[in-house]
Amino acid sequence: MDNRVSEPGTPLPSGPPAPRRSRRLLRRVLITALTSGVVAGAVLAIWPGIDPEAVSPPAPGPRAHRAQLRAPVQAAQALTAVTSGMPATLPALTALIGQQEQRVRAQPQDAKAWAVLGTAYVERGRATAGAADFPRAEKALETSLRMVDEEQNLQALDGLTALSLARRDFTEAKRYAEQAQELAPARWSSYSQLIDADTGLGDYDAVGDSFDKLMALKPGAAERPAVMARAAAVYRNRGWREDAVAQLTDAAAAARTPAEQAAYLTQLGQLAFERGDLQDALRHYDAALRQDADQPAAPAGRARVLAALGRSTQAVTAYRTALARRPDPRDALELGELYESLGMAAQARESYDRVRELAQRETSNGVDDELVLGRYEADHGDAQQAVERLRGEYDRQPGTEVADALGWALHRVGEDDEALEYATTATDGTKGGGVRSALYAYHRGAIESALELDGPARRSLQEALQISPAFSPLWAREAKSALAALGNPPDVAVPG
């Protein structure tokens, strides 16, 4: 079977970072508008996302006519998905957004329509890495809250939680999810969002509490696959790989829509890659893309697998294609490291520059990209700046990912004693770092080696390569070199 990708990528524009929009300012504008008796004109006047051209009918022709016929069905499918926390296809989201834009233009006091529109913008922004959708989403959701307040507006709270998670603002996500949970304590989606928020905050006790409550619910047949997928994510973070795979396999089999099945197949691909089963990972990513050609994470996951298989030319093409479709700074960082591993310094530098550009673009739309920028700076830029960024991020939301990144950044500036504390947090299950990550184990091993802790370093580096021998085209090679430099353990004298 030929798994090659043939579409080339395209360069992306840059832009300086800008501060996050002020929610207080938006509230003041909306309050003024709503209390002045000119709701429709005022709300729509401040609304940059509603463009008459964006929802105008397509040009006449057979293809446009078929698209017009499909749009209402797709919009209905997306409406069901976004109001229940399920994945939706990109064409369905686009159809729903067009429908809801027309609805709020015609009925600007329809709080539910504004909430649905905002949530659909969030999901489209996630699917396309189009962070420009996030300010639009925030405005729509805040508009909904001005009409029906937080004590009753469940749909807007769900949307604001999803928006906060997409922006990596886990504190806000937790606040909104808790409010939604109070309104509807028997809904599975609020617990799912709380689990995501508490994972980002490093509060694993709270994750366990929400997970226990989620598993005590009795979801219907439509919700059951999503609950199983959520259980799989928790099991993965605890290092229970077999349980995670079993849950996701059942979820994919029970999924009711192509978009939902593609999402679970993609997660199965990620799990297979993390355990070093590359052919299985490729099989799952290919299956996901057959179900939903616009599945957000599968193209970059597929590129990652091709790189690990040594199919470097195909991997480069696949990464460039993925970035052209969904310009994510994390994927640009991986492509840069692939180029670096191949000795292509100029291409690597171009890709690293794109990491900055894409992160700046996301930051200007309210996304917290300190983690990806810290990782980039630690290895390919200013390591001291990485430490400063990641210290601030860890103070705000001390999840496992940030602990690992901060520990590595500290190692890069020679602060290995402190670095080991964070690396241990990221890899020690008793401290929350239960996920089995080859990268985290490599980082810990390199830090231990720098501290001349040869035995622990040897064990950590061996663990990294046992978890996944080809976890990174750049860092797996470094792990092998570091392990070889340690040599064999000294012979242990046997008492006579």
UniProtKB/TrEMBL annotation:
Pfam families: TPR_19. Keywords: Membrane, TPR repeat, Transmembrane, Transmembrane helix. The keyword ATP-binding does not apply. It comes from the Bacteria. This is Tetratricopeptide repeat protein. The chain crosses the membrane at residues 29-50. InterPro entries: TPR-like_helical_dom_sf, TPR_rpt. Signal peptide: none annotated. TPR repeats lie at residues 262-295. Residues 10-19 have a biased composition (Pro residues). Residues 1-21 are annotated as: Disordered.
